[in-house]
Design goal:
- The protein has 8 helices and 2 strands, in the order αααααββααα.
- By secondary structure, the protein is mainly α.
- A two-stranded antiparallel ribbon has the order 1-2.
- The chain is elongated and about 70 Å long.
Length: about 160
Amino acid sequence: MLKTNQINEIHRLAVGEHWSIRRVARQLHMDTRTVQKYLHSPVPLPVPRPRPSKLDPFKPLLAELLAKGPRAPGSVILQRLQAAGYVERTRNPADERQVFVELTDQSKALEERAACMGVAVFGEAGISIERLFRLRDEVNTLRDALNAKLAAKRR
């Protein structure tokens, strides 16, 4: 199986540069049949993998809220989430039209309970636990930097 950049290079040379299949094969050190194969079916379809969502812990509540009012706008669902104790809303002091929504301790506890799902799902994908933790730390660093930037704008 070729990598995406190799497949793209085959197409660039054969279609964009109008090279013959034989010339492309020689240039890329491949068999002519391989070049033909990827010109006829360029990219393998991605394999869909189920993955957890941050909303997974909240899905039963959201389903219940939507059952009460299936055509309820997002603002109404947000009010119901706030009444259930999952989110807190605060207005932006600089712009009263803007509302900041933050998770409460109750919803953070649910999020922590759902965190173990990632290990199971990524383990199935062949990603090591160490790599998963490094990815988590990188995402948390990014999140913290963005939150700090937002907090600075609020002041």
